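<instruction>
Derive structure tokens from the sequence

<record> Sequence and structure tokens follow
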Amino acid sequence: MRFLIVDDDESIILFLRTFLSAYAECLTAGDGQEALAAFEAALEEDRPFDAVFMDILMPGMDGNEVVQALRRMEQEQDAVPARCFKLIMISVLTDTKNVSESFFHGRADAYLPKPLRREILLAELAKLGLIDPPARPQ
């Protein structure tokens, strides 16, 4: 399994990579251009990402613009829906406009507000079938 983490905040990248590396190979990008290059390389290698964690507020292209470009790249590869990446938006923005844009235009599978919390992150990933559900205490 492969995850792409896109955020311009190094502490968020470190947080996500720390927790997610137990479940998948994690690649990171600090802006939209890096994300597009990593995504394109993954498609060319026939090793696409299973999930993309995308911040909205970034320099240059914002996260919603990057997601639109990623979805176009995926379409050009004729990806069947089952092979499309799961999109987890991560942002301090929780207003209706940004959340709606993420779900309706980016086809987000989850929207996690910052600051991120480990237990919420893991629960969402389990809900999306990306990881096994956490074990319940006995």
Notes: Strands lie at 2-6, 25-29, 51-55, 86-91, 110-113. The helical segments are 10-20, 32-44, 63-76, 96-105, 118-127. The mean pLDDT is 89. The chain has five helices and five strands.
